Amino acid sequence: MTEVYLSREGESGESAATTRLGVYCAAYLYGKKLANITLDEISDYLLREDAFIWVGLHEADLHLLPKLQEEFGLHQLAIDDANAAHQRPKLEEYGDTVFVVLRTAQLCKESGTLQFGETHLFLGHRFLVSVRRGHSQSYARVHERCEKMQEQMSEGPAFAMYALIDFVVDNYRPIVDAMEARLGTLEDELFSARFSSECLQQLYDLKRQLLLLRNAVLPLLDICNALMRFHTDIIPRESRVYFRDIYDHVLRLNESIDNMRDMVTAAMQVDLAMIAIGQNEIVKKLASWGAILAIPTMVFSMYGMNFKHMPELDWPLAYPASVAFVVAGCVYLYRRFKRSEWL
User: Fold this and answer.
1) What Rg, from alpha-carbon coordinates, does the chain have?
2) Residue 85 forms part of a structural domain
3) Could you tell me the CATH number of the domain that includes residue 29?
4) pTM of the complete model
5) Mean pLDDT on 181-187
6) Percentage of residues in the chain with pLDDT exceeding 90?
7) Domain boundaries, position 302
8) 149 and 281 part of one domain
């Protein structure tokens, strides 16, 4: 299913604008989809009792927002937020309309980095408008799913908004799973024989991405809590249980992210400790060999002094005795350091 719907009469001007790729505009009556309509037909369908309109836009269709503002009476501040983008996840109420901002996320397979987008939702008694921007999957599957759930859709546009939020939250789970797998791989590399700063850099990058993902997920708890407890005039009692289900999913996602952040912090500390241990082992070996080489250095430097009276020079066994002393001292220190595992 594509998100392209043509004007029935093939009009020019504003009606022709609804033929752009990414525009979804449909009318629902008692939970059943009546037709794919143009923006100019919205007013006609709103006259029908128990009918509501679902409009989905992509960022290329932002010029249509003034038309929707006129049709649905959207607040100017919400329109400005949708046009400006780069908003934090939030829920705001403007009269009889609820404005919700969501952060969507995708994991780039090539670089392994997170890419974020936004979805802006306008919910009213008889309409739902979604504006999708940046990195996000198409909502065509959500439209298809809702068209098959007539009983739930009969509850009004609140269920359609639930389906969109649930779709966004479900797309967080594969990202969290991929990050957990990446963390497991990095943990295995911590105890390898070779130490490098690359592993520490990857751990830091993973922690930064977890923080960004947490900033996108955590505000959904407050959003779902507000949708469950307030706005009873827009969201019927039957639909609140769905937002409680999203709340549970978000809570578990947030717990997984927090646990991973703690594990990444611990892994970074372990990596630093392993590097310090490795450096300490090198220092012990250097100190051990320095102590061993100090014996021949001391003896031979003594014989290198140009003193006139050195009794050992007249002794025939002076040379073999000095060499034997040096060898015995070096062997003794080597065995002691070996026994103490410094070598």
Assistant:
1) 36
2) yes
3) 3.30.460.20
4) 0.77
5) 88
6) 36
7) 277-339
8) no
